[in-house]
Structure formats: C-alpha cells, structure tokens
Amino acid sequence: ATFRFQSITTETFLEFVHRELPGALEAARAEEWLHAPGLPSDAPSPRSARLERLQGLGGELPSDELAAAWTPTEWSLWLAALPRPFPREKLEELERRFQLTASGNYEVLVAWLTLAAESGWEATLPRIEVVLGGVGRMKYLKPLYTALASNPATRQLARSCFERFGSGYHPIARAGIAAILARHAA
To answer: In this structure, are residues 66 and 75 in contact, taking their beta carbons and an 8 Å threshold?
Structure first.
C-alpha cells in the first residue's frame, strides 16, 4: 500500500524492506541477486521437456510430425542452435519440406534467413533483400546484416541494401547497421 500507483527505485525498495522486514534481504542474499554478475550459482534452473527435445536433435532435421507441432519459438530456437555453416543439402531439404523462406512469422523467417546467409546459401538472398527493405526493427535487421557483412561473398549486398533501405530505418537502427558494416569493412 505504501507505494501503490507509483514507481520506486531499487534503493527505495531496499530501504523499505530493511525497515519493514529486518534480515529478509540478507536471508535471501539480495546483494548477490541484485549486484553480482550473472545468476547466483544455486539459482533454480528451469527445465523444459520440449526444449530438451529440441536440443536433443542437434543438427538433425526434425520429422514432419514433430515439426508440425512446433511453435514459432521452437522453430526459432532450433534454427538458431544449428551449427554454422549448415550443410547445403540440409538447407535445401528444410526448404523443400517446410518452405521456411515463405514463412510469415518474422521470428522464424529471420532465424532461417540468418542460418542460410551464414551458411553461404545464395537461394535465400532475394528474400533477405525483401525483408531488409520491408522491416525496420533492429531485432531483425542486425542478424541479417551481420550475416551478410561477415561473408566476403555477400558483403557488397549488405552495403547495397543499406544504401537502398537505410534511410527508412530508425536513426538508432541506422547507426547500429552502419557500425556492423564498418566492423566488417562493408
């Protein structure tokens, strides 16, 4: 009730807890949770049977039945975890079986296009250009531009896309992409 309909700082919260619940912060090791890097070593580790099944696939392709039950998050996590470069024949099979290049879900689409670009698979380059010209979210732009700029074969495409589409990006996104291109001399 003390702070109802207000925002408070961490310091205000800590002072309040010290005053109202003496010893509670020490018992909960609040200093470690709030100010130490990372999570404490004894932090609970979440478990997910679905995530463990995804991780268990490694670089193997999912069955059609398994993939049909995946959520976009599961697709994104699995695609992001695949080794780079990923074999061309497996990329081609994924595209043939699941038409990922045509995905309407940008989480899945960008994870797929990033994997393809990092693997040097040119078949998805036209779709990458369409995406770079049609979205402005740094979340989607950064992995695609990084994948293109880090590969000498697609570095010029990254520069060309930025020259064509960059003026439509938010200034923060534009600066972030310019930094990526500069880092890779694109």
So the answer is: no
